[in-house]
Amino acid sequence: MGLNSKKIAETAIKVNSADPDWCRTDMGTEAASHSVQQGADTPVWLATLPVDGLTGGFFNSRNLIPW
Predict the structure, then answer these.
(1) Alpha-carbon distance 44 to 38, whole Å?
(2) Is the pLDDT of residue 39 over 90?
(3) How many CA atoms lie within 13 A of 2 on its CB side?
(4) Which of 13, 21, 10, 3 is nearest to 56 (CA)?
(5) Position 67 pLDDT exceeds 90
(6) Which residues of 31-55 are buried (b: 16+ CB within 10 A; e: fewer)?
(7) pTM of the predicted model as reported, rounded to 2 decimal places
(8) DSSP state for residue 23 in the 8-state scheme
(9) Closest listed residue to residue 41, CA positions, set 23, 66, 14
(10) I want to staple 24 with a disulfide (CB 3.0 to 4.6 A). Which of 8, 32, 38, 60 is the partner?
(11) Confidence category of residue 48, pLDDT binned at 50, 70, 90
(12) Where do the domains of the chain lie?
């Protein structure tokens, strides 16, 4: 039986999605608007949220983006 939102609702597990923007990597090329550090900021922030942190959201530059 798989893990679902009802099973983790009362846990510290967070489920979020992040858009890192267009980053200067091998895939993004040097023309990209964001550094790797800028692209990593939001995923790292989400990964280190406190127990009572946000969940169920889509984020870009630490801002909640409507689905």
Answers:
(1) 10
(2) yes
(3) 2
(4) 13
(5) no
(6) ebebeeeebebbeebbeeeeeeeee
(7) 0.82
(8) B
(9) 23
(10) 32
(11) very high
(12) 14-65
Beta bridge partners of 64: 59
5-38 pLDDT, tens per residue? 788 888 889 999 999 999 999 999 999 999 999 9
The pair of three-digit structure tokens given for residue 10, joined into one six-digit string: 């009362």
- Looking at residue 5, what DSSP letter applies? H
The residue written with tokens 């995923």 in the block is 43
pLDDT at 2: 65
In the chain, the N- to C-terminal Cα span, in Å, equals 27
Reading phi first (left if > 0) and then psi (alpha if -120 to 50, else beta), residue 30 is in: alpha
For residue 15, count other CB atoms closer than 10 A to its CB.
11
